[in-house]
Amino acid sequence: MTRLRVLVLAPDANPEGITSSLIGYSQAQALARLHDVTVVIRPTCAEAFRRKQDMVRSLEVIRLAWLEHIHALVIRWVFRNNYYNQLVQALSFPFSVALEWQAWRQLRARIVAGEFDVVLRLLPVTSIRPSPFAFFLRKGPIPLVIGPINGGLPWPSGFRQASNSKQWISGLRGLYRYMPFARSTYRHAAAIIAGSSQAYAEFAAHREKLFFLPENGVDRIRCTRSTSHPNPGAKLELIFVGGLIPWKCCDLALRGAAPLLREQLARFTVVGDGPERSRLEQLTRSLEIEDTVSFCGFLNHDEAMQRLRQTDVLVFPSLHDFGGGVVFEALSLGVVPVVADFGGPGDIVHPGVGCKVRLTNESDVVSQIAEILRGLAEDRNRLERLGQQAVSYAKECLSWDAKAQALTSIMLWTLRRDPKPDLPPPKILDIENASAR
Question: How far out from the chain centre does Cα 168 lie?
Fold first, then answer.
């Protein structure tokens, strides 16, 4: 394979972070196993990179001392480190643009001198953060690849969990198109990678340079199933992993599992914490299942994965997950996921590795979950088969290494060295006014 010199824009990539920070780090590492990678990064994240002794060739540290300090203070004191608040994305816009602008100033001479073959903008994942690099590279000398990007997932109707979570700023999302560099970002990018079917549909106007690649991934080396499988008479071990907030819908998971739990045919572990915890604990008492449900609270990643490894089924009917990283991790461990057929989890799970429920209404979703779980409890051979297939699927299709290979094929296409890769989305969605972008 051709070894490329890749400049990766991932300022928040961090091996000690979570969500998008860990996504950026993990994907940069996988790319560095194939190419000569230079990562554009913030000072605090650079320190974590160096502690990890990573494989990237070099780090380009971008310092915006006073602006970075203000941004950190706003996140800490105004939003109390609540990254679920969509206002965080909006207020991070000027910081993101300033950081890329400074990166261009630092790297322009090296780019023009031919030190890099391609620029890959891995972070931020959100699709509403414009990139000045697209404008600066509009006439070359090298192509810019953006993604995987995600966002724009609508809130499903008929669920109070969604109505309780939707924020007023969601209605203003379309205004980002009028911000500086917004239109040039996708018009001048050589390739756009969508992280979900929803994002792919929204960027359909750019379909000639549009590809699908999941936002999340897993470490290939960790794609192994536990060797200790329960006997046919053992209880079904169920788990929910995630923030205990309304739209994650742990309540629907508990209500769907309740019939099996009352019959002492299953146990349920809840890993995570949040404002819904006391209400969920009360729900277990009202459903008379408190003796079969364990609330573990927040656990670090390694502890959470250890709990996940000891279970049979992940019950995760989230209404608004763009990526659904825990679903990827469940698949990699052979834990069968039961998810909503929506967003990132709905894209990734297929009948050969897990189960999906239709987002009709609350009571029907609960009934669907109950039916699926009973079926898995009664057919351990199917459960075993799904688990084995899940591990193979994760290793071959969802690993960071597999994604790095796909990213490579896209970058080589933009350089006109290889044919265009065939990377369509799992679902073909029609989004009204998609061509407006």
Answer: 23
What is the residue type of 264?
Q
DSSP 8-class letter at 314? E
Q: Are 247 and 428 in contact (CB under 8 A)?
A: no
- pTM equals 0.87
CATH topology of domain 5-217+399-436: Rossmann fold (3.40.50)
pLDDT number for residue 418: 95
Query: In the chain, which stretches have pLDDT less than 50?
Result: 168-169, 172, 432-437
- Cα(135)–Cα(186) distance, integer angstroms: 9
338/185 Cα distance (integer angstroms): 37
Query: Per the CATH hierarchy, to which homologous superfamily does domain 220-397 belong?
Result: Glycogen Phosphorylase B; (3.40.50.2000)
Please state, in angstroms and rounded to a whole number, the distance separating the CA atoms of residues 408 and 420: 11
Would you list the domain boundaries of the chain? Answer: 5-217+399-436, 220-397
Alpha helix segments (H runs only) across 224-264: 250-262
Four-residue CA torsion sign, 26, 27, 32, 33: positive
**pLDDT for residue 431:** 52
Angle at which helices 250-262 and 362-378 cross, to 10°: 50
Distance between CA atoms of 277 and 267, rounded to whole angstroms?
A: 18
Distances (CA, A) of 375 to 240, 265, 335, 368, 378: 19, 12, 15, 11, 5
Q: Quickly tell me which residue has 């790319």 as its tokens.
A: 31
Asked if 5-217+399-436 and 220-397 have one fold, the answer is yes
